[in-house]
Amino acid sequence: MTSQLPTAPKPPTADQIRRAPKVLLHDHLDGGPRPGTLIELAGETGYQGLPETEADKLGHWFREASDSGSLERYLDTFTHTNAVMQTREALVRVAAECAEDLAEDGVVYAEVRYAPELHLAAGLGLEEVVEAVNEGFRLGERRARENGHRIRVGTLLTAMRHAARSLEVAQLANRHRDSGVVGFDIAGAEAGHPPTRHLDAFDYLRHENNHFTIHAGEAFGLPSIWEALQRCGADRLGHGVRIVDDITVAEDGTATLGRLASYVRDKRVPLELCPTSNLQTGAAASYAEHPVDLLRRLRFRVTVNTDNRLMSGTSVSREFERLTEAFGYTLDDIAWFTVNAMKSAFIPFNERLALINDVIKPGYAALKSEWLFTETAPTSGSVSSRG
Ligand SMILES: O=c1[nH]cnc2c1ncn2[C@H]1C[C@H](O)[C@@H](CO)O1
Ligand SMILES: [Zn+2]
């Protein structure tokens, strides 16, 4: 009887990556509308400011305009998406399409964030904004199901760090915690806007046993991460990529962690990494140089996210494709990132566990066993293992 040695797991194809169940924790609703939808909504609402009037060109414009290497200029592009997301109908539509697009990309669980305070310009109140977005997500989940996809979407309410509505938004998130809002976040330009300005919001949420993440360690380094964790009590770090500033790698590959990096790893603080977004805002120079792989090898609680699908022309699958090209990741690696993300979600523990055991693990097992059933599968007498 012949017996082959186990072969190295193969890199997954783009199609396998898309069909693999994935979890997304960091995605902005106003960073992901379809370009065609923006054009139609601009027509309906009379917004004249869109820089292009054809969908392909508009998508391209967003990617180019977001490539400047500066977070501040990157954030300027949101003026256009938020300009047309001011009515109930527009919010329902954008949220529904978001759920459908994520489901089509193989995402089974997502936490999508948005800042209610940015959607009040045409007269909606904060409550109405949340109700419209919730309605849109429920509609999108239903449509996805009709198309054979299963997805569950929770939202995070974001407060803008340069503004002064964080306590109000935190209270809003708490009121809606049993109707689709699973947590809170602060976003916006990091430099000059420390999260400690919003301590009352974080204290309130901790008092209520609620959950929050903070954009930190993206444009600004370790002090921002330290504040988010030790002064504010964040459950997760939005980006957090600059934690590598506290890690030294010697020539022989030995890594030494400083106190903060050790704390982040020891406490299993989830890092919501967003590789393409980091390339655009200057936090990393290329995929191959992105800290995601060092952090993965050091077994930080790393997750892979999109941040803004429109500005980055990306999807969760595309992020994994780029990382697979750069680091040779296998389906086992993608499953590891996915389980990390599911463990770090803000929904109850029993639901996270059920998604891991009943959806994610069986999904990867099914993908990994597909080679057994192809026409060219080896017959008896050879033993091989594939990824
Ligand atoms: O990566 C980001 N860093 C900081 N702020 C961001 C990022 N992506 C989006 N935002 C801002 C712009 C949006 O209007 C706001 C709410 O989604 O959050
Ligand atoms: Zn973000």
Automatic annotation (TrEMBL):
It comes from the Bacteria. Binds 1 zinc ion per subunit. Its EC number is 3.5.4.4. The record marks 239 as: Important for catalytic activity. The keyword Repressor does not apply. Pfam families: A_deaminase. The keyword Metal-binding applies. Its cofactor is Zn(2+). It catalyses: 2'-deoxyadenosine + H2O + H(+) = 2'-deoxyinosine + NH4(+); adenosine + H2O + H(+) = inosine + NH4(+). Gene3D superfamilies: Metal-dependent hydrolases. Keywords: Hydrolase, Metal-binding, Nucleotide metabolism, Zinc. The active site is at 218 (proton donor). Zn(2+) binds at residues 26, 28, 215, 307. Substrate binds at residues 28, 30, 188. One of its GO terms (molecular function) is hydrolase activity. Residues 21-361 form the Adenosine deaminase domain. PANTHER family: ADENOSINE DEAMINASE. Belongs to the metallo-dependent hydrolases superfamily. Adenosine and AMP deaminases family. Adenosine deaminase subfamily. Catalyzes the hydrolytic deamination of adenosine and 2-deoxyadenosine. This is Adenosine deaminase. The lineage of its organism: Bacteria, Bacillati, Actinomycetota, Actinomycetes, Kitasatosporales. The gene is add.
